[in-house]
Amino acid sequence: MRSVLIGRGRLADLPALAAAARGAPGGGPASAPAYVVPDEVAENLTGYRVHRGALASLGRKPLPEVGAVTGGARRIVVLEDLVDHGNVGAIFRCAAALGVDAVVLSPRCADPLYRRSVKVSMGAVFAIPYARMSGWHEGLADLKAGGFRLLALTPDEHATPIDAAVTSAGRVALLLGTEGDGLSARWLREADEAVRIPMNPAARAAGVDSLNVVAAAAIACHLLAR
What we know:
By secondary structure, this protein is an alpha/beta fold. It is 33% helix and 19% strand. It has two domains: 3-57, no CATH class; 66-224, 3-Layer(aba) Sandwich (Alpha/beta knot). Strand 4 (75-79), helix 4 (85-97) and strand 5 form a beta-alpha-beta unit. The two termini are 37 Å apart.
């Protein structure tokens, strides 16, 4: 933590924030300053009151390499080009809550530390290791070389039901594609197996052939972690 800024109306919280700034247990580095400003100033900095009167500036640590977060992992989630920050945050929450070991992002994925991602994840972006691929074309090859079996989640009714595909032992990487188009053709080809979450036949006949990416991630992460 580099500094704390608090609205005057939240002065009752200042002792706790000051203790954190001094490096108390659970706090940030020593000597991080805490500033007090009129509530109107604090609100004008963001344009709305979601900050609840307190803001902090924190230094961002460099992300680890993919191999560093997947080296000891057994079950991981790999996101390809998800650009909605809320969806990324929600998937992190699913992954952390359901026992997934790590998340890997393609180069164009939304930033998990963007404020909406952090909020939607309920802080789960800080609870699960993650890394970003340096290149999209060779990213899956590196995971395969690390011993991961790649399962590409798709609504294709010819794909293998996911509960049948994750019963085998070994390291598994679940691939989730972007909100609109799903996984790219390249990643679908490079996957070891295409998997699906079976839809109710009546629902499929009515045109409901898939779930949104967050709901699909929740079901898939549950099955992965069994």
